[in-house]
Structures are given as C-alpha cells and as structure tokens.
Amino acid sequence: MIKQTHNTEKKILTLKKLIMTKFFSSIKKYTNLAFKTLLFIITVIIILFLFPSQGKFRYEFQKGSPWKHQNLIAPFNFAIQKSDKEISAEKDSIINNFKPYFKFDNKIQKSQLNLFHKNFNNNWGNYKHKNIPKHKLKIFKTESLNYCDSILNNIYNNGVVQFSEILKQTKKGSSIIVVKNNVAEERDISKVFTPKISYKYLKQDISEKFKNSKNSSEKIDFLNSLKLYEYVVPNLFYDEKTSNKIKQNLINDLSLTKGMVQAGELIVTKGEIINSKKFLILKSLKSEYEKSLGSSTNYHFILLGQIILIFTSVLVLFLFLYNFRKEILRHNIKTTFILLLVLLMVFASSMILKSDTISLNIIPFAILPIIISTFYDDRLALFIHTITILLIGFIVPNGFEFVFLQFIAGIVAIFSLSQIHRRGQLFLSSILVIISYCIVYFGMAIIQEGNIHEINLYNFAWFTGNGLLLLSAYPLIYLFEKMFGFLSDISLMELSDTNNQLLRELAEKAPGSFQHSLQVASLAEEAIFKLGGNPLLVRTGALYHDIGKSLNPEYFTENQIAGTNPHDKLSFEKSAEIIIGHVTKGVELAKKNKLPHQIISFIETHHGTTQAKYFYRSFVNKYPDKEVDVKKYTYPGPAPFSKETAVLMMADSVEAASRSLKVYTDKTINDIIDTIIDSQISEGQLNNVEFTFKDITTIKNIFKNKIKNIYHTRIEYPEENNT
C-alpha cells in the first residue's frame, strides 16, 4: 500500500514537471515569435521613415545660376528662413554673452561667523599689550569684534566663489546671476570675491582702517594675527543644471526666420541670377511647400502606398526565411543581422539621394550579397540582394534601370566570390563588378541616347569608386564576425593552419592524436562535401576536437609506446575520468585560447553522451555484484546538433576503431563502420540532426572507401636475385 502511494505521488510529480516544461516551452516559443514579429515591424517602420516624400518641389535651382523656369509668384504667405551662417552667429552670441547662474548658500556665512566668534573669545584672554591700558582693552575688543563682523559680512554678502573655468570664461565687466532665497539678481563679477582676492582685501582694509588710530601697529598686528581669511570659504556655487537649461532655452527660442513674402509677390524672373537673398527665399518656399504637402490628402494616399509596398517586400523576405531558411529564423541574432544589412543599404541610399554632389552609383550594393554569402549561402544572398534593391528602386530616379544594373552586379559578385579564402579573390571580384557595371550601363545608355556622344562619362568614374569600396567587404566581414559571433571561411582558413599554437602543441605533445585528427578531418571533410554542408568548418572542428589530449597524452592509446599503459596502475573509474576529461579540459583549453564557439561545439559533441565503454565494461565484468555509477563513465555531451558535428562524431569513432582491426579486408572494414554508425543511431546520438537514410548511406560509403584506401594491402616487392 505504501509502495503504491509512493508510485502515485511519483507519477503526479512527473506529470506536474511535464506540464511545467510544456508551459515554459510555449512561453519561450511565443516570446520568440513576438520578438521576430516586432523585428520585422520595426524594419518596416524604419524603411518607411527613410523613404522620402514622393511629392517634391517642382523647380530646381542653384545659387549663382540663372532661374531657368518661368517667372515665379509666391503662391502663399511664407517666412524667409535665416541662413545656417546667420543662425550659427546668433547662437555663438548667446553663448558668449550668457550670464552663468550661481546658488547662494546662507548657512555658510552664519556658521563661519559663529566659528570666528568662538575662536576670538577663546584667544582673547591670551592677548595683552603694555601700550594699551587694561580699561581700554574692553573697548578695543568690542571695536575689533565689530570690525571683523562687518568686513566678513561684507565679503559674504557680495559672495565668495572658488576660482574656476566658469569665471575664467566670463568676460571682465560682465555679470553673473546669483539666486538667493529663490530670487535671482544680477551681480557684477568684479564685486564677487575668491579666497585669494579676500586675503588681499582683508590685509589692505585692516591697514587702511587702523593706520591713523592710537597704537595702530599693535592693533593691525593683532587683527592680522586673527587670520580672518581662514574664515572666508565659498558660499556661491555654480549651478550647471540651471545655467545649461536657461542657455538652451535661449537657443531654442532663437527665431529661425527673418521677414515675410506675401502671396502674389514676385520672387524671381526667368533668367535672373539667383543671389544669396533669392536663394534663401526659394529655399524657404521649397521647405514650406513640402511641409504643406505633408498635411494634404494626396500625401496620405502616397504614405499608404509606401506602407503597402514596404510591408509586402518585408513579408516576402519573412516567408522565404520561414519556408527555406528556418534555421536562420530560429535565431534572433541571425535574423537581426540580415534585417540590419537591408536597413543599412536603404539608409545609405536615402542619405545619398539628399546630396546634390554624390551619385547613387558610388554605393557598393554588391557588398550585401558578398557578406551574406560569406556567412550563409549564395541563394539567400541573391534573394536578400533582390529584395533590397527592389525596395530602394521605389525611391531612386529611373527605378527600373537602377534595379537591372544592381541585380546584374550582385549576380556577378556572388558567382565570382562564392567563397572567400584569399584576399586576391575579393580584388578580382571587385574588378569583375566594375566591368559588369560599365557594360550594362553602356548598353542602357546607347539605347536611351541613340549614340555614344551623349553618354555621361562621369558615371564610369562612380562605378570605379563603387568597385574600390567593394574591397571594404573584407574588414566588414571581420567586424560582423566579432559583433554577431559568426564564423567566416576566412577565419576558418586561419584556424585550420596547422602552425597555430594549439595544433603545434598537440602535434608535439600528442603526435598520435594529431595524426588521428588529420585522418578524421579528411574523412569528415569529404562526407560533408557530398552532403552539401560546410567542409571547411568540419575540417577545422576535426583538427581541434582532441586538443584536450595534449594535457595527458600518455593515457591515450595512439600516443602510447608498445608495452606501456599507465591505466594498468589506475582504477577503472579514474581511467574513465581521465579519458572523459579530454573533452571537458579540451573545452576549457579552447575557451582559454578564445576559439570560436562554433569550433568548441565540435569538442563538446564529438563523443555525444556515449560511455567510455572499455572501462565501463571492464568494471562490470570484474565486479558483477557491485552497483556501477553510469554517470562517471558517461561523456557530458551534448549530442551532435548539426550535420557537421554529427559527421565528425562518426568519423572520429570510425577512424579510431579502424586502427584496432587486426586484419584489413573489405568485410572487416564494412562491418566495423556499419556497426559503429548503427550503434550511434540506436543510442539516439543523431536524434537532433536532420539526416535521411540516403545521407547515412552516403556517409558510410565514403568512410568505407577512404578507410580501404588508407589501409589497403601493399604490394610485396620481390627480392633481387643476386645469381
């Protein structure tokens, strides 16, 4: 009965855990969905914000050029805007003539006078002088005390400040604003004291006040001995917050206009040279015209059209990722990265379109597919490039020509640079993009103009600059790698160099493990190439997967000298701990040397959650009656989660097992490879990887062929007959 109750409680607890797991899983799922939805909505809003108004001022004009249109009459009343130079000069005037604000502290004056009185009375008993009769000492005491109170009050009432940069910047003869009891009053800066000024003032005033009195020398010496300057401390403090606020308010209240133009007034006549005055009037009219357009009914329809087009374009991008690149959509960082690149291109185009001196042809739009293909694949790169140039095509002049030109350049960039392994590849791609721009533009230009004489040759210079800017893809790829934690082929090439410190240490300390890693890299690379994965990634991961063995190389079979096995002196549990430790310590070593997390994943997963079977079985066989703690013989994992990590796991096990074969025949090689991979599948080590039966068969066949080539029987050469 007790056992049944215990089982019931256990089932209820398990059910509760299952419900909570599903609950939190649902929350996580919907939170991620909400975040991604928000990302795409924000993208739509930002692009909409960057899009210019389709309604623009119909006239074009430049300062110093003649007015090429008909006489222009003011259609409505509008104010004339000040030039940037005028506004800047007025701001400078406000800043230079600004009176800083200081807070007056009443408490300091009172506390310092009280302190002076206390010290004066304490020290008066020590004062005696033969030239002053005793009956006059009391009068002198009162006279001295009154004088000291008067002069200290005078100093404090005027204000004492600590000399600072604020006073230094304030002009001589100017004023400051003193706030006392919430009342602000202007005060001449020359009347304000500093501790240094008060010292000189006290010394001079004492001499002037008592120089004609009887026993003047004794009185002056006495008053100087009181060190009144020590009781003078700042009671005026600069109010930075109030000063900055009022200064900013004055700048904000600055009028940006001067004068008015009345409706019906002639602004400029045809052929008239546009001077500075006319230019400001025309600029003001343009600004007011575009503002009025923003409140018109037509503009609302234009805005609605922009929202529909932008939303549709971004929705198509989302659907593409959802249907064909779900692994990207699952990761917020990857989704953010793609949307950020699109926004950067739209932003750059929006800024250039506002310039009258820079051509849109200078923007290297082909850099977008180059960066995308570096981290993902060519198909995704081309699709995102297409969506981006379609979006920008809505806002540029001659949209079709722009889209056609950039589409061809993007395709050329992708085809010429499917993988960046060397810097020279990017330079070649840059040249090919320039050539494609020039050829396509030349073809479109002669169709439009009908001859070659009217072609704008400056565009060829812009295309050349565009190609040169394409070279910035190399440093940008490095920047994005660090920002988003990505891993490019360039970095993989650098990491796979066997002269790297970690690989050199592995080769020196554990040469057998290093050779094993090279063989595993060869097996895994070919298999992944056939499966359509990333061969360079799996090769690099294979080279580093056993770096943990460099810490205890002698405990691994491939590094041991015949007849010597340190495990003979250890318990099975301790041996398993050391063997399993090459994974955990390998991860620590990789993190210490700042290897990318993508490479560390290969170290973590190359044994999955399998067991150190040799020592586990040895323990069970030797101590059949003892209970074994399976966890102590199990690798921490996790299990492989991608095709690359799974193939490495299989290649590692196959290569290691093939070394133990006593006879190398087709049958023994085929059997051991089938047994190992089937065992990994049955143990659930490949459950997190989307493999098909065809993929597994392909991997097995590649491994079998490679192992047979490595261990094939050599021809035995006949000995030379000396007869």
Tally of helical runs: 28
Q: In what range is the share of β-strand residues? A: under 5%
What are the segments in which pLDDT stays under 50 over at least 5 consecutive residues? none
Q: How is the main sheet built?
A: 4 strands, mixed
Shape: flat
- Share in helix: 55-70%
> Taking Cα atoms only, what radius of gyration do you get, to the nearest Å?
42 Å
Mean residue pLDDT: 85
Described by its quaternary structure, the protein is: single chain
How many DSSP E strands?
8
Strands of the widest sheet, in order across it, are: 5-4-3-6
State the end-to-end distance. 95 Å
Which structural category fits the helices and strands?
mainly alpha
In total, the number of domains comes to 3
Which features characterize this protein?
single chain, 723 residues, mainly alpha, Hypothetical protein af1432, 3 domains, 4-stranded mixed β-sheet, two-stranded antiparallel ribbon, 28 helices, 8 strands, 63% helix
Task: Map the helices and strands.
Elements: H1 2-50, E1 72-73, E2 78-81, H2 84-96, E3 101-104, H3 106-124, H4 134-158, H5 165-169, E4 175-180, E5 183-188, H6 195-210, H7 216-225, E6 236-238, H8 240-252, E7 257-261, E8 266-268, H9 276-294, H10 297-324, H11 326-329, H12 332-353, H13 367-375, H14 378-393, H15 399-416, H16 423-449, H17 458-469, H18 473-484, H19 489-495, H20 501-509, H21 511-531, H22 535-544, H23 572-592, H24 597-605, H25 613-622, H26 643-658, H27 666-682, H28 693-710
Parallel strand pairs: 3-4
Antiparallel strand pairs: 1-8, 2-7, 3-6, 4-5
